[in-house]
Write a structure and sequence with these properties.
The protein is mainly α. It contains five helices and no strands.
């Protein structure tokens, strides 16, 4: 997913102000759907999607930053949640 986010941000940066003409929003919709499918939906994806609709702010690498943040949060959650320990079964 990180590769997709970097590609989306890079493409939007390269298009610059012409992005609105060439379908900048289509890139955002595809990236949002790909992120939700690959890493699962996370609430951080919503403000990132909204920021991408604001002219000028869409030049920032928001998809990349959001993807890194979601991956870090999910890894931290995996390390803090330990599996339940059950007593050994006695036959």
């Amino acid at each position: 997913m990180l590769v997709i986010a970097v590609c989306a941000d890079g493409l939007q940066f390269c298009l610059g102000p012409l992005g609105w003409f060439f379908g900048d929003q289509a890139i955002d919709v595809v990236t949002m759907l790909a992120a939700s499918w690959l890493i699962g939906f996370h609430w951080l994806l919503l403000p990132t999607f909204a920021l991408e609709l604001v002219p000028g702010l869409n030049e920032l690498p928001t998809w990349t930053a959001c993807t890194i943040a979601v991956i870090a949060i999910r890894k931290r959650e995996q390390h803090t949640v330990s599996p339940p320990i059950f007593p050994p079964k006695s036959d």
